[in-house]
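Quick log. Single chain, no ligands specified.
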Amino acid sequence: MPLNLKEVMKIATEIAEKAGSLALEMQHQLGAIEFKSPKDTVTQADIAADKLILSALQEAFPTHLIRTEESGFVNNNSAEDYTWIIDPIDGTINYSRGMPNWGISLALFDAQGPLLAVCFLPKFDEMFTAIRGQGAYMNGKKISVSNISDMSQAIISNGDFNVGPENRIAEINARNVRLFAAQGSACQRVKSIGSAVLEGCYVAAGRLEVYSMTNSYPWDTAGISLLVLEAGGKASNLNGEAMAYCDEEAVVVSNGILHDEYIQLISPHL
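-> predicted structure:
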């Protein structure tokens, strides 16, 4: 049975707002911070926001498959083609240090790929939304990627160093160094803000021309890819192929105009 996407969007944005309010309340009273790995942390707020989102989605869509960063797969026996991919707090390192650059992502997939996206930046009170084929919006106003066509005027952001499987971090960091050097020679500015959700939203809103990650997971890219596509941009892996939304995927989202040129710029350094 087809979903009422307008109603689904209403539910998803309300869930994101509630999770954002909870995370804001907890940001300066985090308690113990645990390490998933030597370079990656999880806070009590990540767990609390994850539980809030998961519970609300299960209540609203009990037959949908759900995958969250903190809980993994839920409703694995679902026979439906709908899957939610959730990042309860993206940019946890930023969040845990009191920085504003973090976000919450809820994305709904069907058999054709990303169908609906809600990405919320609570510290800035910016709600980014998209439904496939219906454009991208920020706080209800339509947004579009930038029209910059000269790479020397482009602002590019990247995933952080020290992100990825522990046994591959040195390799990934070395690749990032090579890519940063190539970008620095070609572009106006090179950044690493530390939140895929925020940086992807910024591409969709025309604040950045390119966001690139040499190591990502579906919860990093599920929402922002649809936002960027619906805002008129492009999304692919670093070889220019369609995104697979798989673990440890290297991806790029852009204003579209500079997409192929960016891939050509970095390809010798991958």
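The mean pLDDT is 94.
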